[in-house]
Amino acid sequence: MPELKAALNQLGNTRLAQVQPSAIRAVDQRISPIPGIIKLTLGEPDFAVPEHVKAATQQAIADDVSHYAPSMGYPALRQAVADYLADRFDAHYSSEEVIVTVGATEAIAATLQALFNPGDTLIVPTPTFPLYAAVGRLQGLNVVEVNTAPRFIMTPELLARTLAKHPDAKAMIVNYPGNPTGVTYTHAEVQALAKTVAQTNLLLISDEIYAELTYDEEHLSLGKLLPEQTVLISGLSKSHAMTGYRLGYVAGPAVLTKQIGKMHQYLVTTAPSPIQMGALEALTNGRHDPQVMRAQYQKRRDIVLQGLTAAGFTAAQPGGAFYLFAKMPARFGTDDVALTYRLAEDAKVGLVPGSVFGPGGAGYLRLSYAASEANLKEAVARIQQFCATH
C-alpha cells in the first residue's frame, strides 16, 4: 500500500472536514453484522422496478443507446417530465425549463452550487434529510436549521419568526412528504406557506420526491402554487422504485434552470443514456405504477403505527413517504442513539436515531416501512417484547 508523501498530509477541503459521513449509513453498517437482524434503516423501496421500465432500459442498451445524451437530457424525456408534472400536479413547465439529473441528490447539489454564494443564508426546517444541510455547508452557506417539532411542518408563524432573525435569508429547502417523519402538508397548510413566501423574496427549493406516495390527500405542489419562487426537485427513485437508476430532475423558471443546467453540466456532463430511456417509459406508460406500491405502503404504515403505539411509542400520523418517526416511551429517556443500538442488539431490529436528522429529532427513532409485511410484523413484535421486558 502506498504511503502519502508527508508534505501532502495536510491536503483536504476544510469545509468537507466539518461535515460528517452519512450517519444513516454508519448506523446501518454497524448493525448489519448482527445475526437475524431485521433492518428498517434505509429509505429504499423494496419493490422491483416495473418490468416495462426494465425492458425499455434493456432495449436501449441493445440498440446501442450508449453515447452522450444532450447535457440537459433527451428532449423527449424533458418533455415527458413537463407533461407528467402538468398531468399529475397541475405544475406547468416547458421542456426547456426541465433538467434531467443523476438523481435528486445531484439536483440538490447543482441547485445550491449554481444559485448561491458562500455566506448566503439557507433555511432548513428540521428534522429532515441530513443531505440538505451538509451540501449547503460544503457550499459555504450559512445553514439555519429550524426545529419544527412536534408538528414537523414550517408554519407561516414559524417562518415569520425565522425571517425576523435572518432577514437576509436567500432560500429555504422544504421536503414533503418528509423524510424522516412521513408528515406532509395538508392543502391548507401548503397554501398558507406559499402565501407567506409570496410576500418575501425567498426562493423555495421544494424536494417533492415522495409526491406519489401520499395517503390521505393528493399532493399539492409548490410548483403549482408559487412557480415564480420555486425550484421543484424530484425523481423516479421512490415513485418507481428506481433508486439504483439514479434519475432525477429539476424544474423551475428558465432564468434559474439555465444556471443550474450549467452547474449540472460541469458536475456530471449528463445522466446515463439508457437510464433516460427507462425513465421516458416510466413517465409515459408507467404513470399508474406508483398506485400499487402506494396501497401497499399505506397498509404497512397502519401495521407499524398500531404496533408501535401498543409498545408505548407515539408518532405523528405519516401522511406520505414510507417512514414512521416514533417518539420514545418516556421511561427510556431521550438518548435515541443508545436505544437504537439496544434494540439492534437485544431485539434484533434496526432503526435510525432521530437525532441524526437535526434539531427536533432527539428522542425519536425513524422506522422505514419499505419492507415486507412479514418482516414488519415480526419487527413490531420484537419491539413490543423489548419494551415489555426493559
Automatic annotation (TrEMBL):
Transmembrane segments: none annotated. Residues 37-383 form the Aminotransferase class I/classII large domain. The keyword Ion transport does not apply. It comes from the Bacteria. InterPro entries: Aminotransferase_I/II_large, AspAT/PAT-like, NHTrfase_class1_PyrdxlP-BS, PyrdxlP-dep_Trfase, PyrdxlP-dep_Trfase_major. It holds the Pfam family Aminotran_1_2. SUPFAM superfamilies: PLP-dependent transferases. Keywords: Aminotransferase, Pyridoxal phosphate, Transferase. One of its GO terms (molecular function) is transaminase activity. Gene3D superfamilies: Type I PLP-dependent aspartate aminotransferase-like (Major domain). The keyword Transferase applies. Its EC number is 2.6.1.-. Its cofactor is pyridoxal 5'-phosphate. Belongs to the class-I pyridoxal-phosphate-dependent aminotransferase family. This is Aminotransferase.
